Amino acid sequence: MYHVISHRLALATLAASLFMGAALLSGCDNPPDTIKIGVAQPLTGNLAALGQDLHNGVKLAVAELNKEGFKIKGKPVTIEIVAMDDRSDAATGKQVAQQLVDAGVVAVIGNLNSGVSIESAPIYATKDIAQLAISTNPKFTQLGLATTYRLVANDMLQAKAIGSFAANQLKAAKYAVLDDGTPYGKGLAEGAADQLKLAEKEITLRQSFDDKTTAFDELAAKLKQDKVEVVITTLNDFQVLALLEALKKADYTQLSILGGDTIKTPTMLKGIGMVKGLYATSPILDAKEFVNGKVFLAKYLDAYKVEPAYGGHYTYDAMYVLAGAMRRANSVQPKKITETLRSFDGYAPVTGSMKWDGVGEQRYGVVGVYAARKGAWDLQLRSDRW
């Protein structure tokens, strides 16, 4: 009798296991109660204000989506943010990427720095996790990964904007080109220098620093000695402010500074009046330049009691596009989200829409050229209008 009961029990157990396995397979894409979205940005250090702004954009969107009742397949799903500090450091960024993968995020909005995004990208790709980055170095999408998505225009377009504006609008005889040694800074500076050469402009000084240098007395003396009229730079805002102080000390301020997007910040506006002209190019257009920008700015100010420092409206939009992709895919599986994004024209509440080409470049990317005047960045030109 014991053997008969054991045999029947074994058969019943096997049948139950097969049934449960089939049920799991058929329902494996049923949405969970909660999903995790990763945010990887510099939340401490010199670029913390920019990274926190990008984090704030995601938080604002997630709060709205959860409040309105985000659903997949008709089931309410709560979105949870897992935010980590990449410290603007590639090695730390790789560690953060692995931690976010291990935490079970379904997509990541990050990073700010190109060097960090490039190093992190292969880690996300191993698990088919979409990485939506505001980084601008072309190498990010040239990695050939299905998971890389850029939120703005890349540096090839920005380099053209810098070179064209410097050569045709500033019309100087002698130029200097400076970079911060990062993939972003070095690549953008080289592209700008190439544009100046095409315009047959003289570059009297070409120099690299690291992204933390603030001692520029020697540089200021060189600029004065070479009688440089325009400095093109991809240094960060705090570095350019230090350079302005050094130029003031050297009594050489009758020159113009034209920077990349890391100087188009509220902090950099402290430099107004310290030199002849202060300009910046950026693929990060101000929220106020969009039809729905005023609504976003009002909500942002109400939530955080400060003005946006950089591109929080782009990460806000990115979160809404991710939500739309999940709804379109009827899934929160990373691979399905990634596949949907590649063929998806996502609704972006502030900027209008986001759509990517086959390698993850933003089809609607635009570069603006700005002048620092009267306590604000004043738009001069846009690449979609010249």
Count helical runs: 11
Main β-sheet description: 7 strands, mixed
Structural class: alpha/beta
Q: Could you give the order of strands across the largest sheet? A: 9-8-10-11-12-15-16
Q: What overall form do the CA principal axes indicate?
A: elongated
Computed CA radius of gyration, to the nearest angstrom: 25 Å
Give the H and E element order: HEHEEEHEHEEHEHEHEHEEHHHEEEE
Global mean pLDDT: 92
Helical content stands at 40-55%
Q: What is the beta-strand fraction?
A: 15-25%
Oligomer: single chain
Number of strands: 16
Unreliable residue runs? 1-27
In angstroms, what separates the terminal alpha carbons?
90 Å
Structure in words:
With 386 residues, the chain is α/β, with parallel strands linked by helices. Helix content is 43%, strand content 20%. It has helices at 2-26, 48-68, 90-103, 114-125, 155-170, 183-198, 217-225, 237-249, 293-304, 312-329, 334-342; strands at 34-41, 71-72, 75-76, 78-85, 107-109, 130-133, 148-150, 174-179, 202-208, 230-233, 256-259, 277-282, 345-348, 352-355, 368-373, 376-382. The strands form 4 sheets. The chain has a 7-stranded mixed sheet with strand order 9-8-10-11-12-15-16, covered by helices on one side. The longest helix has 25 residues, at 2-26. The chain is elongated, with a radius of gyration of 25 Å. The termini are far apart. The model is unreliable at 1-27 (pLDDT under 50).
